[in-house]
Design a protein that fits this description.
alpha+beta; Immunoglobulin-like; Beta-galactosidase, Chain A, domain 5; 6-stranded antiparallel sheet; 17 helices; globular; disordered N terminus; binds 2-acetamido-2-deoxy-beta-D-glucopyranose; Glyco_hydro/deAcase_b/a-brl; metal-binding
């Protein structure tokens, strides 16, 4: 608990009330501006990475300063001290992880002082999530969760004044439309960032397009949000960095030969005038800060005080520049008041390129196992949250363990964590932290399941290495093992379950004692051959399970062998070329054909369509330069820069065929370090490709990036689709961007986009979709062709700061990664397909498996499972969790992309949770939806500008009902893709 012990779990309400009284935060605290002048909003800030070159604790405490000088605790110490000295000074705090750690260490005097600063709008929170999350490789569920966490903390400590209204995503390497949509749904007024394609930025500087109205969702109305691109990265103007780590001169205003006031004021005014030419209004925002600045805040504030004084003194001589301390929310308030119009933005800001050879598309894939681990973390987090609510676990210990996992997941979303752009030692620390949080939260899952089933002493252990068919619980015999499956979905689900086992003869029975048909499938020898893997489990037991919420299955070893794994047929690799040699793999829904000479896939038939599919693995060789100039940039953790094109790896692959009744698998051996299982399950309308890549060889001193590619005859005309953080799909056009002509010097990496959940393409008849299991880079370089980058091992740093080559090793050799891609071929459809999204959701959150020893099948205490039966088929449960002591948070999401509005009644669920009251909140769960009021801006071309400023309010009448009301007051209506968030306060809580 070293990380999190200090953060209170549930803060009592009176503290909150204390905080709000007499508040003058928000626009009441905004500086007075001047008409007919350039109003310069100086925004003091510090960009504090939640881990990057140092671990989160090293950054917090300021240890390991030889790696990077940075100590966040001192930043907060000194900033607070300096703010207290002058009521005009301002500071914005962004990362709530660091803030909460610091605040918990303060004595009551300091805490009271901080309360005052916040209540008076002198210390303001921007962003406010646990970390400043990445936007390319995160999943929307985790982003929502980490905002929920950060904003809840701020609300508990500071009340309304602690609630941020501005998104501050200044460092992530490109920006997603879904993130903007999430900000809109949380009621934020706008967001700011500092990185976009350099050609796009150049154009926007020229045509005053730096600030715009982003139409952040195709399906949600009222999703327009003000979006501002910063002028000079997120740094102070050149020459005006007053931080102790900078070398710029201070303002010297004394009797001195070195007095530089005139010069500095001239320089600043010149800068401001140049800058303001690129912005539409009479206000400009100038951030004053950078990475880990303000460690001795007195130096910063003393010089900013002087700068403000001397620049404004010039007004008496006719200067039109007015400068003052401000915050992003005050800046945006002024813009909103101006009633100007702003350009539109519809697509997103990917990929980001910073010069003609630097497309930041490598990080979409960097550290593939860490990217997968954080998705496992999310999966388990959701599982434990649901189980804790069902079992009503509210002890301090349980709450703390769940809170730790929540915080670990918040940290993992950081733009140097899930991105894979941190140093190796920091990556290990993230893994350690998340692993520990998962292990601690396993206690919650166990305690919950002990009360939710009648197996009151069950172990309910999780196995975290199922991806390589390892589970300590089943490795010896798997006799009399109970598997408890937990279904996170709102609806009863039927899925195939795979359990690593040792022998090959088992019987599976359900709660009613009925035998469930099962079979045993061999684990590919390439997995068995992994050096560090204990080789006890050579098989996987496969059976089909139908689970409402929780179901138990008993596995027993049969006394005498029933069958052996005799269904496995090997095809010799060396054979005479004979085109007619074909292997057909067929079940009732899907038919695959393979060329047994090359070992490759030929065709896929499903949903009444037959498509030629050539599937291959390929390598891009990483460019190695000396990084001196752009053209010498190496491929690295951030940047994908191939040296030449795709080189196909599998001209001839060895194959074996396992012809089971429920599952059919083709095991392909591509080369010494790539293999794959292609499988189809009976009744499952998709094809699964489970790849195994690594150790990527580097004996030739060449870094390599490995991709999987599917080529079809679909004439996609340069168009393909990728998801935005796992939600809406965006259309991509090869070599094109929506608002500018990109520099395509890097024609391959410049066409890479983040794929968190799916990538697809189509022509008039056929559509092909790939669903992945973690964030990856993906593209379509030719019509009909889809490609995902699976793994990267590089030998050079790309000179964007991490200072290490992305050369992951494990057990003394290159890291091995394993994962899955699912493929669906279906009829073309105009809009993204919701069925695919549901499959994606199911793949993302399959049944979680818990293991116990028992010789009987336990039963589930059904009376503890609430009623989800009224949820329409396309409505999913996005969150189901304890919000505070007697409050449960529920998020429901309509997965329908193009269909009708759906409605259902939430009363049965409310009632089965002993609901007393239910109300609706913004997406983060912390503000009543009825209180939402966010800025509405005018877009170019709207015609006449309204006579007074406008706002967006709740997009519908927010629910607010209690148990005395008629069930008709509990109807939930969801437009396509809508998410609604509810808090249910429970009855019968004794204080
Ligand atoms: C609280 O902490 C501050 C800063 O560390 C210190 O200056 C002050 O003396 C402390 N006050 C009390 C009452 O301990
Ligand atoms: C911007 O979008 C609005 C609303 O979608 C539309 O009315 C307007 O014409 C657009 N303006 C431009 C310049 O595209
Ligand atoms: Zn950063």
């Amino acid at each position: 608990m070293a990380y999190f012990s200090s953060v209170p779990v549930f803060i009592t309400l009176f503290l909150l009330n204390n905080a709000v009284s007499g508040a003058t935060c928000g626009i009441k605290a905004c500086p007075v501006t001047k008409l007919n002048m350039i109003n310069v909003h100086l925004v003091p800030h510090s960009h504090d990475d939640v881990g990057w070159l140092k671990t989160v604790d090293q950054y917090y405490y300021g240890s390991q300063n030889k790696i990077q000088h940075a100590g966040v605790q001192y930043i907060l110490d000194t900033v607070v001290e300096e703010l207290l000295k002058d009521s005009k000074r301002r500071f914005i705090q962004v990362e709530t992880f660091f803030f909460s750690k610091w605040y918990a260490e303060q004595n009551a005097t300091v805490q009271r002082a901080v309360q005052k600063l916040v209540a008076e709008g002198r210390l303001e929170f921007a962003g406010g999530a646990w970390s400043m999350n990445d936007e390319a490789t995160v999943h929307y569920q985790s982003v929502i969760d980490q905002f929920n966490l950060g904003l809840k903390y701020l609300n508990d400590i500071f009340g309304d004044c602690g609630r941020p209204t501005i998104g501050w995503q200044i460092d992530p390497f490109g920006h997603s439309r879904e993130m903007a949509s999430i900000f809109a749904q949380m009621g934020y007024n706008g967001e700011f960032f500092a990185r976009m394609d350099y050609v796009d930025k150049k154009k926007r500087l020229e045509d005053q397009g730096m600030e715009m109205i982003w139409q952040s969702s195709e399906s949600l109305k009222d999703s327009h949000i003000f979006t501002g691109m910063l002028y000079n990265h997120y740094s102070a103007p050149p020459g005006f960095c007053f931080d102790i780590n900078c070398h710029d001169a201070p303002i010297i205003d004394g009797e001195s030969y070195d007095n530089n006031v005139d010069q500095r004021v001239n320089d600043f005014i010149d800068y401001v005038k140049t800058m303001s030419k690129s912005f539409r209004s009479t206000h400009i925002m100038v951030p004053m800060g950078d990475d880990f600045q303000y460690e001795e805040a007195a130096v910063n504030y003393k010089n900013m005080d002087k700068l403000i004084k001397y620049v404004n003194d010039r007004q008496s001589k006719g200067s039109q520049v007015n400068v003052f301390y401000s915050t992003p929310s005050c800046y945006l308030h002024e813009l909103h008041q101006l009633q100007q119009t702003w350009p539109n933005k519809t697509e997103d800001f990917f990929p980001y390129s910073s010069d003609s050879h630097s497309y930041w598309t490598g990080y979409f894939t960097s550290r593939p196992t860490q990217k997968r681990f954080h998705r496992d973390g999310n999966h388990f987090f959701q599982t434990v949250k649901q189980l804790s609510v069902l079992a009503n676990l509210t002890s301090t210990r349980h709450s703390e363990d769940l809170e730790s996992l929540s915080q670990a997941m918040g940290i993992m979303q950081h733009h140097d964590a899930v991105t894979g752009t941190e140093k190796q030692a920091v990556a290990r620390d993230y893994d350690r932290m998340l692993f520990k949080a998962i292990v601690d939260a396993e206690n919650n899952a166990r305690d919950a399941l002990r009360s939710l089933t009648n197996l009151t002493s069950g172990e309910f252990e999780s196995c975290l290495e199922l991806n390589i068919s390892v589970c300590s619980f089943t490795q010896n015999s798997a006799n009399n093992v109970v598997v408890t499956l937990v279904n996170l979905l709102a609806h009863t689900s039927t899925q195939y379950v795979r359990i690593p086992v040792k022998s090959d003869n088992y019987i599976v029975t359900d709660e009613k004692g009925r035998e469930i048909p099962s079979e045993v499938v061999p684990v590919p020898w390439q997995v068995l051959a992994m050096e560090h893997r204990s080789n006890d489990t050579q098989h996987e037991l496969v059976f089909e399970a139908t689970v409402e919420k929780i179901a138990n299955f008993l596995i027993r070893v049969l006394p005498s062998p029933k069958s052996n794994v005799q269904n496995l047929i090997h095809f010799p690799t060396e054979k005479a070329l004979d085109e007619s040699d074909e292997l057909t793999v067929e079940n009732s829904l899907v038919k695959l054909t393979f060329n047994t000479t090359t070992g490759g896939l030929k065709t896929i038939e499903m949903n009444g369509l037959t498509e030629t599919i050539d599937q291959s693995f390929g390598v891009y060789k990483g460019f190695r330069g000396n990084n001196g100039e752009a053209k010498n940039r190496s491929s690295g953790a951030y940047v994908f820069r191939p040296d030449g094109g795709f080189e196909k790896l599998n001209n001839k692959v060895g194959i074996s065929f396992y012809n089971g009744t429920r599952v059919k698998e083709v095991h392909q051996h591509v080369n010494e370090w790539i293999s794959q299982v292609i499988r189809v399950y009976q009744g499952d309308n998709r094809v699964e490709f489970e790849w195994l890549v690594g150790p990527i060889p580097t004996e030739d001193e060449v870094g390599k990036e490995i991709v999987i590619r599917f080529s079809s005859n679909i004439s996609s005309k340069g168009i393909f689709y990728t998801d935005s953080n796992g939600r809406e799909m965006l259309e991509r056009e090869r070599n094109q961007r929506d608002t500018f002509n990109p520099d395509m010097s890097e024609a391959i990496s410049g066409n890479y986009y983040p794929v968190t959940g799916q990538i697809s393409l189509q022509d008039d008849e056929v559509r092909i979709t790939l669903l992945n299991d973690r964030a990856q880079g993906g593209t379509s370089l030719k019509d009909g062709e889809l490609e995902l980058m699976l793994h990267r091992r590089l030998l050079n740093d790309d000179a964007f700061g991490v200072g290490e080559a992305l050369n992951e090793t494990q057990y003394g050799t290159g890291l091995i990664a394993r994962g899955k891609v699912s493929l669906i071929i279906d009829e073309a459809s105009k809009k993204p397909n919701h069925a695919e999204r549901l499959v994606q959701h199911e793949i993302d959150q399959p049944f979680w498996k818990f293991f116990s020893k028992s010789n009987r099948v336990p039963s589930v205490n059904k009376n503890m499972i609430p009623d989800f039966t009224d949820f329409p088929p396309l409505v999913e449960l996005l969150s189901f969790e304890q919000h505070s002591e007697d409050h449960i948070l529920i998020r429901v999401e309509n997965f329908n992309t193009n269909g009708n509005v759906v409605s259902f009644n939430i009363y049965p669920l409310f009632s089965s949770l002993s609901g007393y009251k239910i109300w609706e909140t913004t997406l983060d769960g912390n503000m009543k939806l009825g209180d939402m009021k966010r800025y509405k801006f005018n877009q170019d071309g709207i015609g006449s500008i309204p006579s007074s400023v406008e706002y967006f309010y709740a997009p519908h009448n927010p629910m607010s009902s209690d148990y005395t009301m008629d069930a008709s007051e509990f109807v939930v209506t969801l437009v396509p893709m809508q998410i609604r968030t509810f808090i249910i306060q429970q009855k019968n809580i004794v204080y």
